[in-house]
Amino acid sequence: MKPISSLRSRLATFAIVSAAIAMLATPSAAAPRVVATTSDLGYLAAAIGGDLVIVETIVPPAADAEAFEPKPKDTEKVRSADLIIRVGLGYDYWLDTLLAQTGNERLMRGGDAYVDASVGIPLLEVRGQDVQNDGGHSHGVANPHYWLDPQNAIIITAGIAEALIRILPDERDRIVQNRERFVQEIEHNIKRWTEITRPLAGAKLIAYHNTWPYFARRFRLDIVDFIEAKPGIAPSPAHLAKLASEAPLLGVRAILHEPYEPEDASRYLAKRLGIPMIVLASSAGSLPGTNGYIALVDYDVARLVEALTPSR
């Protein structure tokens, strides 16, 4: 069981993130309700919808969406939605049950109020397999952590903008302007992030969970192995011993860790290898200073550069 202080901290972070998303705009009470499964999609929807929409999210930002168990209040949240936005690819597979309970075909797959944000994304690790495996979880038909490549935010927001125009056709110009403004901002920041991370190109890393392939491809990092031998399954002593023996030969420079995963194995391996364990934000709002999509990438880039740049 996690300490009460830790749970309180995460609940406080969720409250802060929810308030931050609400502060991005001041919509009227009659504005359409957009429900996103994750905080990342929520922030992107708020950036495009502005004060035209009310944005809510389902999964707390510091929680593991792949292991999330919806509550009755989440069913009501989905039932009241005018637009649903999901990650897809099996990441938020539990949403299908909530959608079925609403009986609203517009919110279901193929409906005009349904957005699968993965549509159009250049996917990594494409394969066919079940959503669940061996008591843990797998990554469905492809790795679902595509939002961590900021270039993909351009594709995601295109799908969100199209859906918002469907439900708010008279506001097309404002929605298009909001997206154009966001795209300019993200493109500017991608150039900045790419320059900042240039000295890290080729850095070899071990990650706890297979969260980072899109982020690593964008910033030319090399994730050589994972502490979880299978997604959602804690590592065995034999697997940790294998990593400890192979990592020095590969020149591994750091361990990447997600905020919601147990830390013991990552800390043990980092200490044994004499390398840093870097806790990166896998979702907006999952760590202090990441309340926003651009803030999320800013934080992760800064932590990597700080940890992997040799001190003078």
Give structural notes.
The longest helix is centred in the middle third of the chain and has 26 residues, at 172-197. Strands 2-1-3-4 form a four-stranded parallel beta sheet. It is built from ten helices and eight strands. It has helices at residues 4-23, 39-49, 72-79, 95-102, 150-167, 172-197, 213-218, 237-250, 264-273, 293-308; strands at residues 33-36, 54-57, 83-86, 114-116, 204-207, 222-226, 254-257, 277-279. With 312 residues, the protein is α/β, with parallel strands linked by helices. It has two domains: 4-192, Rossmann fold, CATH 3.40.50.1980; 199-308, 3-Layer(aba) Sandwich (Rossmann fold), CATH 3.40.50. 44% of the residues lie in helices and 10% in strands.
Throw out a few tags for this protein.
Rossmann fold, 44% helix, four-stranded parallel beta sheet, 2 domains, 8 strands, 10 helices, 312 residues, disordered N terminus
Within the largest sheet, what's the order of strands?
A: 2-1-3-4
Mean pLDDT: 89
Radius of gyration: 20 Å
Instruction: Specify the structural class.
Output: alpha/beta
Instruction: State the oligomer.
Output: single chain
Number of helices: 10
CATH class assignment of the largest domain:
Alpha Beta
Helix content: 40-55%
Low-confidence stretches are 1-19, 130-136
Shape: globular
CATH homologous superfamily grouping of the largest domain: Nitrogenase molybdenum iron protein domain
Alpha carbon gap, first and last residue: 42 Å
Strand content: 5-15%
Order of helices and strands: HEHEHEHEHHEHEHEHEH
The total strand number stands at 8
The fold-level CATH name of the largest domain is Rossmann fold
CATH architecture of the largest domain: 3-Layer(aba) Sandwich
Q: How many structural units, i.e. domains?
A: 2
